[in-house]
Design goal:
203 residues; alpha+beta; Pnp Oxidase, Chain A; eight-stranded antiparallel sheet
Length: 203
């Protein structure tokens, strides 16, 4: 990932991007070319391992154990119009762009064709994503035989992380007047726009 110095995130912030994104693309090479799967992501307690699962029917996991993987996580994304820039009134040499916060993880795939491992991963994942619910749903809320069938239909995936890079492109390269105007415009836009605006406030 190309990251100009102004947009580069430290490792801790990059990990927060992965956590905030909650899901991402796992991409790996095969003899027939690159293949991807979009899955929920859990950053494990060691801070260097990702876990997820894929449908057993999805061939992505077959022959994947031990192969290199690229994980792409996007936490915020919004179009930026030149109309947002007050500076264009003095200098019209401006173009559209895109603001976003993303992370790229490289590592090695480990496949866990084990119902007990998959069940534990689903429970950790559910706990993670139900944290904000007033009455969190738990795996044990569903009938045990149903959960057993669902677990048999998935395969566990983990990634042993070798490197992580994070990028926050949030108009840091624009004059303050433009940065602030972009923030204000996005703050009144779509939910995706507002997510970028919140991050611009912390940039």
């Amino acid at each position: 990932m190309y990251i100009p110095p102004k947009f580069r995130l430290g490792d801790d912030d990059a990990w927060r991007v992965v956590t905030d994104a909650g899901a991402g693309f796992f991409v790996r090479n095969t003899p027939s070319g690159p293949v991807s799967v979009f899955v929920p992501i859990v950053v494990e307690d060691d801070g260097r391992t990702l876990s997820s699962h894929v449908a057993r029917a999805n061939d992505w996991w077959r022959d994947a154990d031990g192969t290199d993987v690229l994980v792409l996580a996007l936490a915020a994304s919004a179009y930026v119009s030149p109309l947002y820039y007050p500076s264009r009134l003095e200098d019209p040499a401006v173009v559209p762009t895109w603001n976003y916060v993303a992370a790229e993880v490289r590592g090695v795939v480990r496949i866990h064709d084990d119902p007990a491992w998959a069940r534990a991963q689903v429970e950790r994942q559910t706990t993670r994503f139900e944290l904000s619910a007033p009455n969190p749903w738990r795996v044990t809320d569903a009938p045990a035989d149903y959960i057993a069938r669902q677990v048999r239909a998935i395969v566990g995936v983990s990634v042993e992380v070798r490197s992580i890079e994070g990028k926050a492109k949030l108009s840091q390269n624009r004059p303050d007047v433009d940065h602030d105007a972009v923030h204000d415009a996005l703050a009144t836009g779509s939910l995706a726009d507002q997510q970028v605006a919140r991050r611009m406030g912390n940039a």
